[in-house]
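Example record used in the benchmark description.
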Amino acid sequence: MVNGRLPTATLRTLTGSSDPGCGPTMVQIAQKDVPSGSLIAQFGADPDYYADAFTARARPGIDLREFLAVFYRTLPIRAERQVLRLAGHGSNDEDVTRLANDDADRCAMWSVESRRADEILLSDLSGRTKSWLKVEPVEGATQLWFGSILVPFQQKNGGFGIGGLATALIGPHRFYSRVLLRSAAKRLAT
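Model output (structure tokens):
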């Protein structure tokens, strides 16, 4: 680190695209309750919102900068970033570096809603979906957290909810969340 920042060359070494996150390292992903005191705790406590949280263990000493840099350079996220580029919301590895180093409040279609030293909450352009990442030191490891929030909106029937389509896609969403976290955790295992 230089002045508390990860240089771009170091980030490329840590996150080179040759490893898609599918290697011999076994990573266990667990779905957990939204942690109290976290940036997403208020959403997890409100039944109108959908909120999830997944964890994985990685080597000790990982900070939020490193987790962000690796997470947003995994193969699944690179593919997602390419789709977003086609939709006019492109980003590149330099944008990821700036986000990781807290030098930018935006990357692709995501903007920083809130940030602490150990966690970040990002919101999409519509404000309807949010992504959350957190690092937590635990005995002999770093616990990586990844979660999502779906924000309720006024339904045609006058009530509030996340909508039928979003509800129907929660199963695939949970699977994809596990894939994303597993890809990052494998790279951060050693």
